[in-house]
Structures are given as C-alpha cells and as structure tokens.
Amino acid sequence: MTVIAANPSSPTPIRGARRMPSAGLIADLRARFADRLCTQQAVLLQHGRDESSFAPEPPDAVVYVQNVEEVVFVVQACAQECVPLIGFGSGSSVEGHLLAVEGGVCIDFSRMNRILSISAGDLSATVEAGVTRSQLNLALAQTGLFFSVDPGADATVGGMVATAASGTNSVRYGTMRDNLINLSVVMADGQQLRTASHARKSAAGYNLTQLFCGSEGTLGLITEATVRLHPRSERTAAAVVRFPSVRAAIGCVIESIQFGVPLARAELLDVLTVRAVNAHSHTGLAELPTLFLEFGGSQNHIDEQAAQVGEIAGGHGGDAFCWAHRPEERSRLWTPRHHAYFACLQLRPGCRSMTTDACVPLSRLASCVEETQADIAEHGLTAPILGHVGDGNFHCLVLVDPHRPEEAEAAEAFSRRLIARALRHGGTSTGEHGVGLHKMQYLQAEHGEAGVALMRTIKRALDPHNIFNPGKLAGYR
Amino acid sequence: MTVIAANPSSPTPIRGARRMPSAGLIADLRARFADRLCTQQAVLLQHGRDESSFAPEPPDAVVYVQNVEEVVFVVQACAQECVPLIGFGSGSSVEGHLLAVEGGVCIDFSRMNRILSISAGDLSATVEAGVTRSQLNLALAQTGLFFSVDPGADATVGGMVATAASGTNSVRYGTMRDNLINLSVVMADGQQLRTASHARKSAAGYNLTQLFCGSEGTLGLITEATVRLHPRSERTAAAVVRFPSVRAAIGCVIESIQFGVPLARAELLDVLTVRAVNAHSHTGLAELPTLFLEFGGSQNHIDEQAAQVGEIAGGHGGDAFCWAHRPEERSRLWTPRHHAYFACLQLRPGCRSMTTDACVPLSRLASCVEETQADIAEHGLTAPILGHVGDGNFHCLVLVDPHRPEEAEAAEAFSRRLIARALRHGGTSTGEHGVGLHKMQYLQAEHGEAGVALMRTIKRALDPHNIFNPGKLAGYR
C-alpha cells in the first residue's frame, strides 16, 4: 500500500477506483435485510450527498440496520470483498463526508435509534448511533438534565461523534469531544469494541474514545455512545449588545471569560449579517457588529453576570444592552440569530452558501476576522460572518450563484486564503465542520508532514484494506 | 513481532530482555552531553523507581536534556540500537511507570523547564515538559488565571500529560485530558510532531493530542504542551459536613451536581480516615463519614451555593455544616484533608501505603465503597478511604508492613478484588494513577481482547521497535 502525499494546492481529493459489491454480496445482503436493502436510484442519490455543494456520489447500495449484529454482518460481508462502507446518520454533514467516492455500501443508522438508558445519577445517557439530539432531549424533558451539543441540524449522536460536532453551546458545555464517556464501535474485522468504561474519568490506557471521535467513519462504525448530560439552568436570560467594531465585541467576550462569567452562548453577527436579519426578520437592529448572549443560573447569579458583562461591554463601547428573561421574550430577542443563516441567503436570492469554518486562538480572532472582512471587500464577495466567539470559531457564508461556476471558484480561492490566514494565526481549517472531502487539501499545511503521516499510519493500522469511508480525512490508497 | 496475550491472573508484568546501550552509543551521548550524561549508580537508582512499592529497576544511563534538539538526538541515537527510552519528570508516578524493566536510557526533563509563553487572552500557556505545576502557577500569579490540574505531588506538566493526571480540582475543571490544547512530541523515528493547532477546538482529523495524553511514554516523548488556564475565583469558601453514612455523603454530592452547583472540590473521608486525622492533627472531628467541600465565585454566588448545598446535605442527614471564608480559616478547615495521607500512615507507624485507584459511575460509588469497606473488615486490613466524590474516584490506602511480605500479598489480593468490583460496577481500574506496571494485568478484563489488541496495534504502528517505555501499559514484545 503506497502513501500518496497530499497536494496542498490541489482542490481534488485523492480517490481510488470504484469498488462495487459483487452480485453475490448483494444477494447475501438481500437475504438478510430483504427490503431494508435498497438499490433504487432515488435512495442511492439521497445517500450519496450531504449539505455540501459537492455533486452527489451515490453508493451502490443502502442498508437500513436495526442492531449491532446487523452492522457486524454488513462489515464482515463487505470486508471480504474490500467493498467500502459509509455510515450515514441524518445526512447533515457539510464537507462531503458522506459521498461514496469509491462506491460501496452505505449503512443507514436512522432506524437504529433506541435510547438504551438514561442515568440521572450519573448525568449520562447511552443511546444507539441513530438517535438524534432532539429525540434525546425530548426523552430527557422530565429529568432536569439535557444533552448540550447542538450543531444546528438535528444530527444523530453517531454522526456528531464521528465529526466531533459542536455549536453555540460549546463555549460553556464543550464540544462532542468533551461530552463522551464511552463508545461502541465495529472495527474493520467485524470485532466489537467498547472504547472505555462508564466512569467519568479514566487513566487506563490509550484514549480510544477520542480516537474515534472526529474520525469521520474512517476507522470504524460507531454503533452506540454514552454521553454526558448537564443540569438545565434554573433560569435563562438573553441579551443583545451592539459594538462599534468587531474587535470591541470580541474583546468584551474574552474579558468576560477571563472574569469567569459562565457565558452559555456568545454569538457574533457582523454588520452585513445584521443587515440581512433586519431585512428578513424586520428587527430594526442598528447596523453594527452585534453580540447575542445567553446566561444561565439562578436569578441572582444571572443578575450578577448581567452586571459584570454590562460593565465589561461598556468598557468596550458596547451600547443598547437589551435583556430578556421570559422564554417568549428570549425567543423573540434571539430570533435574528436563529434565522441568520436563512436571512443571509436572502441577500442574494437563488444563491447557496459556501460556508467556511476557521477557528483561531481567542486573542487572534479579532485580527483574523478584520483581515477576512478586508479580503471579502477586496474581492467583491458577499459573505456575511457569524461567530462562536467564545471558541474562536467563525463562519463566512460566501454566497455563490450555482449557475456561475466562476463564483464557486472565487469562493474556493477565498476559502484557501482564509484557511492560510487562520493557520498563520495559530488556528485550524475547521473548528466544527470536519475534514470530509473539502478540507483534505489543507491537512498537511495544518498538521505538517509528520501529522498527516501519523494519521495515515493510524488509518492503515486500524483499517488495512481501507474499507471505512475511503478517500476522506487524511485519505490514502 | 508477536503479541503476547495478557494473563489476567498474573501479577508479573510481561517484560523483554534487557537492551543495554553499546559502549559506542554511550560514547556518542557523552560527546554530546558531557556531564549531563550520568551513569553513576546513585543517579541510575534514583531514576529507576517512582512512588510505587516496586523494587527499583535502574536504567543504564540518564541524560539531562535542555531542549528538543537534544531529545531528538537521544531518540535517534537509541533508535539505531533499539535501546529503550524512558521519559522522567519529577519521579512522582505511582504505578511503576518509570522502572527501566528492559534497561535503556532515561531522559530526565527536569532541566527542560522553560515557560515559553503565557497568553491571558487565550487563557493558555505553553511550557516545556519539565515545568512543574507549582512553577507554572507561580508564573501565573499576577494574571488572575491558574493551571487547575493538581495530582498532589508537584509533578511536571509532561508527566501529568503522559499519565492523564487529575486530582481534587477535576470535579470542576476537568482532568489533564480536558485541559490540553496542543502537544509537541518526538516520535520513534526522531520526527517532531505538533498534535494540533492552538485553537480551543478543532475537527481537523484524528485527535492526536488525546492519543498521547495518558500514553505513559509508550508512543513518543512529550517535549512541550499548551494547556488551558482558568480564571481564579473572586472568592473561595470551604465547608466541612459530616454524614450518617458514606452513602448519604455521596448522595449529597451527586444531588448538588445535578442541581448545577459548580463544586470546586468534594472530598470524602471515611470514618477511619477521620480517626487518623483526629489523631494526627488533633482536630476533634466527629467520627463519621465527612465531606470537605470548596466553592468559588462571587460572595453572593458562594452564599447561594452554600444555601443550596446546605439544604441538600440536610436532606441526606448531613450535620454540623462548618463554613470558612477567610484564607487562614479555609486553610485550617481543610488541614485534615491536606494531611490525610500522612495521618493515615500513622495508623500503623512504619508501614507504607499500597494505594488503590478505582473509579466508577457516580450512581455506583456508594455501593462500591460500601462493598469495599465490608471487604476490608472481612480481611482484617487497615485501609482508610479518601474519595474524589464528584468523579466517582476513591483511594484505599492499604497499610502494609514492608517487613511482612504476606501483607503485601494480602494487599494485592484486595486490590484484585477491588478492581473486579469496580469493573462490575461499570468502572475502571484506574481513575488517575495510570497503568504503569501495576495495572497491566487488569487491562484485558477492563477493555476486552479487542481493546487491548487495538492498543497494541497502535503501539506497534507508532513504535515498531518498542523503544518507548517498553513493558508498560498494554506492553508487548
């Protein structure tokens, strides 16, 4: 097996030849799964894409599994012919993770969605991979606990583990990586593995749980996860504050974190995004960089946080600190943020967003965003910015007319410059979206030759025949 | 290379033949390091042991490195002859991690101890591996920030990363695993690797940082770490509460966590430990299971936490809730906990402690501790118990007369029963001490054949000639 060096300038991912299942394999799968094996074009197409703008690459078959024994069966059957296997949750990944670039069998986990246990005493829940975050939170409604990871889409837990998802909550509750206790995984030889015990911490050997979190289906198939839960805040309050500059808004968040204010969310909208939400939601916000904040705790504790952040914001020129405590008020106040993505799309009706995902150290965030805004202006792009400020993560929604290929090219060129800039600032090409197909070209610049070589060493050791989601992440042939 | 199956019933670790450096290799090291290469017996002995009760196994040479280039030099020189390499920080590990069971060269990092940068804006610091936690916290004194991981000993950051250390703070601030941003590592071929960017989160490929955290020097040598810092609490308060039973004390902690009280520390002393500290520190505590608690925040927030926990404690029969706010009062109140280890040793003067490290899900902690106390009583052991309740982690200090080998055997037999019990409760053999030599025999019971096989696959892939700390963790030949 030869390791192919990544070509940092090539936007085309490395891919191997298509490895179709034989007629015999399909017959074996049909015998076991009956009508839960699908080969109809519509189903294949639906499973050969995600929320990225890549053209679909359908698998050769889709199997709807219902339990781990079925997963083992499919893995063993496909391993015999070195047929690729791609796990599929809700299809909400955004970097081409799910495309069957070498064909193969897609394992759809959506029907393997039992909540196996909820333990309030352990602040944990064990779920099958196909359980969605909203399904889990509905089941937790009476416990006083909740599952915090929220990437926006109603993703499956298995998918969120595979992509190391995060979102607006992670400034307080951490990312998927921070909320995992244990995983069950089916390996390339069909063996089942539990990555850890159910204890909240352990020093018993290599961290197998974190090896699979963020592995994007390339090392094994996640069938079950035990996740941490958090107590719901007694009360929640929301605030919106406008600032004279992006730098001032970011400065306010950093100083609040340094003061130990446990911000529950801290979302930045740049001027263009504010303009977009005003047009979309008729909100009449001043056209200034704006922070959407959320606080949790007792009423006293919230009041205290409000006073602290209010003072800090004032020191950074923050103005019109607008508060909401009652659920309906909060919901109304946060509406612009919740609708921001769709509002931004309306800046250029008919366009789609090529969404970037740079993440940099907090102290470099203001510079990185300012330089990025200058780049956007210089190249005449329409690219509103949304930021998870507490994580140093921000998204540019580069609006692209699908009928004008030169716009997609310009967006890609912008993305390359942005990632180079994020790396110069000590950051990463992707804070929460993952590598998939789209970011493979940047891995070497980010991790160096030694880092990419090590990732390939791990992949080769765990999946020697390259059956799990081939051609993704640090992909090799 | 053959994988040797672990024998779960054997207390003797698997070990290979001694692999001594050649005279030529020693000469090469001498030429480069002059008097920073030591082969004197006293130095070798000092580097061939840790705080465990294993008899020392000295390396063949000790090199005091001062920078990463020197580490690379030693690794490359030793790799040519497949001579083992063992990283050494402050020698405070407790499971035989540092013993040179196959001989080789010990790399002492204590002189590679520069604090490379402190970034208040990023809430992070980058340090060389030999920096100790107290050294780092001293350097942070004026920043309002601190480094939270505190395993008791004044360990080095490199050592704490290698063993996935934690301690009394982790209920609030997490373990070493949760406080890492980036590592620099020298690999088996002498290549240098940075495991991640400096961003606070990333989804860019496999989690290399967590692969090395807890790897106990078996996959590479950690030369540098970027760690998270936390804001110091505006105020701190301490409390001591006695309970009618261990179960009641644990119930109080679990309920407090479920209510979202951000406990800074929650330490349990069982009756025997209370008796020991009373005798040692003349504290006059009631001989009941006792919780030592710490709270941080603003005065208002602390008052609120106090009221909540007071009410919860009352519901569990907690009594004599004793509070301290001023530093000297807090220090006095916590003295029994701080001196507990030495106080317990005085229960049997001249004995040493064989300290266990089981960790179980919170909901199983009370049962596990109760069953363990019954075991202690049944076998006539003297074994006071200290618990990091919020993590589900507890230590039995089994007091053993070093002149009576049958006591060491009885302690080992107790440890085996305890670990079997912890595993039955869904827990781990080691919450924070690590595997080293001592827990190797339990890895298979904890992780199953698939888990141990995967750990060995990873070890073989990253260190094919088994030069890094051979014979430890999932050790193989």
UniProtKB/TrEMBL annotation, chains A, B:
Looking up SUPFAM superfamilies in the UniProt record yields: FAD-binding/transporter-associated domain-like, FAD-linked oxidases, C-terminal domain
Kindly list the cofactors needed.
Answer: FAD
UniProt KW Magnesium keyword? no
* Gene Ontology MF term list: D-lactate dehydrogenase (cytochrome) activity; D-lactate dehydrogenase (NAD+) activity; FAD binding
Q: What is its EC number?
A: 1.1.2.4
> What UniProt keywords are attached to this protein's entry?
FAD, Flavoprotein, Oxidoreductase, Transit peptide
> Biological process GO terms, please?
lactate catabolic process
Q: What Pfam families does the entry give? A: FAD-oxidase_C, FAD_binding_4
* Domain FAD-binding PCMH-type, residue spans: 55-232
Using the record, list the residue span of the signal peptide; answer none if the entry has no such feature: none
Family indicated by similarity: Belongs to the FAD-binding oxidoreductase/transferase type 4 family.
Q: What is this protein called?
A: D-lactate dehydrogenase (cytochrome)
